[in-house]
What we know:
The protein is mainly α.
Amino acid sequence: MKFIRKIASRIWRFIKRFKYVISGTFLVIFLIWFFCLPDELFKDPTSTVIYDRNGNLIGASIAEDGQWRFPYNPDVPEKFRKAVIQFEDRNFESHWGVSIRGLGRAVYQNIKGGRRVSGGSTITMQVMRMARKGQDRNIWQKVVEIFWATRAEWRYSKSELLALWASNAPMGGNVVGLDAAAWRYFGRPADDLTWAESATLAILPNAPSLMHPGKNRGPLMEKRNRLLDRLYEVGEIDSMTWALSILEPLPEEPHPIPMIAPQLMTRIIKDGKKGQIVYSTLDISVQERVNSLVQFHHEKLRENEIHNAAVLVMEVESGDVIAYTGNVPDVEAEHGKDVDIIMAPRSTGSILKP
């Protein structure tokens, strides 16, 4: 006890002697920590996305950098949320951005394996790494990630941090984020994915360059099934759901993202809404029916060298546009496939037909 008191006394005398230096150092560190985060974490270009009046996807354009990256979505489906937390960061809801246990486990695994096996990053730290893209993965960068992550926990809520992760996680190939991946790999919105599909997308960011639905399907299936086992063990899914999920196959070739009103997409981009989510007044069922009718008549009229047609359907009561077909859906490029006939000047007699 005397030895401990002696050491404590020396430490205290040191602190009293250099208290201003120590206080100043801590103040500088605090200020660096407080102002370390940029105002906007992600500035990557995003796809222009159009939904109809009921929230159905009408179309999406690829982002300027060649990635399918939908704009930030604050809503993360419950199945995907639970799958990601169980796979990436089981203590996500309780830690302050950093898991000491996770970092310690990662150091032990890396020393034991003689190579980098685990990084010990929390979901918050992963978001910071995504935002700081292009940085080397070394000890110094890990320290910076920890700094950013602890600060981010004070700026953002847990739901916001998970949404940032889901919107910016690499999903293999040129697919980024949950929403784009759900459409590319499964052909439907993320809210409609099964447990097996949600688990598949939850593990893809772990090694997107090594495995995705198009390659290394064996390891991908094993990882997905281990995650489903974990979800069953912790009671997130029941035995029937687990048994059926294990039997689900992985997706095959990527699905084309719907483009039901391409001329409207072009018009929206020209109107300055590039890279944004646009909720239109269109009705997808009416739009698809109009597209089908225009294509049907085009098949007959093309023999008479009539290659273009356009239809605009509006509700009389509200004036809302519910269908916007600016040209024949599959008209050849030589006949002006990308030309929006609706916007072309026409004579009054061609517009009004009593």
